[in-house]
Amino acid sequence: MQDNTNKENQNKGQSNPKRNPKRKSPDWFMYIIYAIIIVTLGGLWLSGDSKKDNVEIGWSKLDQILRRGDQEKIIVVDKDHAEIFIKEEALEKDTAYKDIVKDGNKFKESGHYTYKFIDVEGFKSDLDKVAQQNFERDTAGIDDSVRAANPEMINQIRRDNHIELSSRESDHTWEKVLFWFGPLLMLVLFFVIMSRIANRQMGSGGAGGIFNVGKSKAKIYDGKTSTNVTFKDVAGLAGAKEEVVEVVDFLKNPKKYTALGGKIPKGVLLVGPPGTGKTLLAKAVAGEANVPFFSMSGSDFVEMFVGVGASRVRDLFEEAKKKAPCIIFIDEIDAVGRARSRGGLSNANDERENTLNQLLTEMDGFGTNNGVIVMAATNRADILDKALLRAGRFDRQIYVELPDIDERKAIFEVHMKGLKLGNDIDKDFLSKQTPGFSGADIANVCNEAALVAARKDKALIEKQDFLDAIDRIIGGLEKRSKVITTEEKRTIAYHESGHASVSWQLRWGQPLVKVTIVPRGKALGAAWYLPEERQITTYEQMFDEITSLVAGRAAEEVVFGQISTGALNDLERATKMAFSLVAYYGMSPKIGNISYYDSTGQSEWNFTKPFSEQTNEAIDGEVKRMVEEAYQRAKEIILASRDKLDELANVLFEREVIFREDVEKIYGPRPWEEEKKNDEVKVEKPESIKTEENNDNL
After folding, report:
1. Does this model's pTM top 0.70?
2. Which residue is catalytic, options 362, 496, 545, 622?
3. Which of 104-108, 178-182, 436-440, 640-644 has the highest average model confidence (pLDDT)?
């Protein structure tokens, strides 16, 4: 109950937005850009041609309006055009103005009609002429005596026919602003958009990303952020964990070491096969160490631009020095740390070499990096540059190997914590069924078992679900829908029975677990064995394995008198094993105690072999001899127990799947099983490691 409460509190703490530093803040910069765009468009609309609602007319229409006297007023705007306002009563009575939309307030600011002229003085002169003509028309019927007697009346007629003209200047504020600043705003907007597009393509991150292309892209884990992974979550890896714990302990208690004059290693390199827990171990360091932790992938330094990789290395170490003491973790360092100028291709990749040179300088160059510890992980240590591996840069190389049976059990316990398990789950049994599995493989087994159980609508995950998951990972998905003829099925049954029969009767043959002729993946049949976890292997043991590999084809030849293509994978493995016996392990009498194996990986880049043509022919001859001897040996074993092979093949043909018990029922128990158990000697772990595991005070 207490554990569940702690988990709930932890989940609540993780869901608190105040504790989530990665919560994305609003992009205020882009909001400002959008506001500028809106204001600019608004200014264009406000400063647009206000005459878009007016009707533009010519002089004939204007002359007609003036002669009728329907104009209310005429305003000259900017000495460029005139706005003519029509009287309300004329709009209501006269159909000549039907082209104007009669909207009460629509033409308050601008006139009903617009007339463009060339010269304002000429326009005034034309208006005076029309006014004079209107005056003469209205006074044409008045005698001279009446005019002389009523001058005031004549003046009133002249005033009535006078065309009032006013002028105004339009507001050009927005036009002036846009004239001066519009192009500049458009350039800024274009530059920002292009910058963000380049930023997304280059993955440089942050606003103005094109300027940050040379900046480090490392993720920082400090007091505010955490990976939520501790050393308790790392099962197994006792030796590797011990050395890494010492690094974390130095950062927490430096006086314990400096009092004796000791110095912390500058670099720690985690080396091992894929999936063994190198990155998980680094996450645990980030979760345990109370110092800033910079995490970055080796591929993050590589960029299409010249000098970017070296610039990011400099920026990464500059940031780390500011926050020292701290840890820098570079995952998959082989992406940038490959040996320089291999294969005679000088200047083939100067950018990557420049990045590596900068990394070498920052780790241990003329400057100092006090308080900065570099951790790195790779599964290709053989291709790394020697200058990167020397003491002073990576002082410690920690080999993270595949887990043994006890470590696999501990890994199963970690990954089974959140699963609903049945009562028949045996972790010891599962750890024995998964030799050669890495931590990632075991995690995948647990997940696949849960999926298999869910597919069958089970409430709990049972032992068989785990076995099905292991079969799924090793052999692939079952393909029962694949069409196989009866003849092909019988051939496959004898082929797989040949493997099982010979392996069971050999002293160093691998113990059988299961044989199936149900197609899985690309294989039409498969046999599962439980290989011994040996530290060294003898010639007799490897020769027995080669014999077991070619036994499938030998059974086909003995029973059917012909062979098939189904032994391709068997022959490939047998040939490689024989070649390693001859060329690598020096177990051939003809070649002698000579090994042509190169542990440094330099031979990958050589165009010539490390031996002569005569030696090459001798190696080929010895490989062929070993495989043929194993093949003849397998045929002899099959012929000596042909009746038992037929019985086993018939059972497999009918059931399609057989197990160890079925083989033991036919061939009897193996006499070597008890001898092997008595010969096993368990290597004890150091007391320091056992104490830490028991107390769990990491």
Report:
1. no
2. 496
3. 640-644
